[in-house]
Specification:
By secondary structure, this protein is α/β, with parallel strands linked by helices. It contains 5 helices and 5 strands; from the N terminus they run E-H-E-H-E-H-E-H-E-H. Bound molecules: NADP nicotinamide-adenine-dinucleotide phosphate (NAP). NADP nicotinamide-adenine-dinucleotide phosphate binds at residues 7-13, 31-33, 36, 54-56, 81-85, 102, 106, 129, 131.
Length: 172
């Protein structure tokens, strides 16, 4: 399979990369920390394509996804892990704002771009790592739980769109 993981330099995205790279896949990985991308590329040079980008920089992330799409010709699976969240019970706007910029503004651009790629291809699996934190408002992290609720609802909307257009959908 040709796989793209956005947010693969650490955590869940990196663990998914390690899982899929050990199977018969080509994987494009995206994140901001270039030295971590380089490390993963050095470990699996023939199967890994790296691209440094910040999902809040729309021109940059658009270019990088386009480039990976051209390189792969088709994408079978795209996993969007990129996300941030901090404890912020005191509601510092300097914490809420980047959380919204990342988990809502940049995230929406990435999800929509991948959705359109799959629409054109007429196949593809689009996966977003949201959070159980999005099921209820969380007093310790209001922007995190609210942005994750947004993601859950957005993915539900896209699943319904895909289904109405003849696709299948599942939710976990
Ligand atoms: N860990 C949990 O318990 C848990 C539970 C529920 C949901 N989640 C969700 O799972 C996802 C991954 O979380 P994690 O725990 O694995 O955290 P993590 O280790 O901090 O990983 C986040 C990944 O997202 C990337 N990222 C963050 N902001 C980005 C941006 N602006 N542009 C591009 N890449 C960006 C980071 O790469 P760079 O820093 O290199 O850019 C990193 O690879 C998040 O969406 C999180 O909300 C996590």
């Amino acid at each position: 399979m040709n796989i793209v993981i956005i947010g693969a330099t650490s955590g869940i995205g990196k663990a998914l990369f390690e899982k899929y790279v050990n199977q018969d896949n080509k994987i494009g990985i995206i994140g901001r920390r270039a030295h971590l991308l380089d490390e993963l590329h050095r470990k699996y040079p023939s199967k890994t394509f790296i691209a440094k980008a910040d999902i809040t920089n729309i021109d940059e992330i658009e270019y990088v996804i386009q480039t990976l799409h051209k390189e792969f010709e088709h994408i079978d699976l795209a996993i969007v892990c990129a996300g941030i969240g901090e404890i912020n019970a005191k509601l510092a706007y300097s914490v809420e704002r980047p959380t919204i910029d990342t988990n809502v503004v940049g995230w929406t651009f990435v999800i929509d771009m991948l959705y359109h790629i799959f629409e054109k291809q007429d196949y593809g699996h689009l996966v977003a790592i949201t959070s159980a934190g999005g099921l209820r408002g969380e007093p310790m992290a209001p922007a995190y739980s609210a942005t994750k609720a947004y993601q859950i609802n957005y993915m539900e909307a896209l699943r319904k769109n895909a289904f109405n257009n003849g696709g299948t959908y599942s939710s976990y």
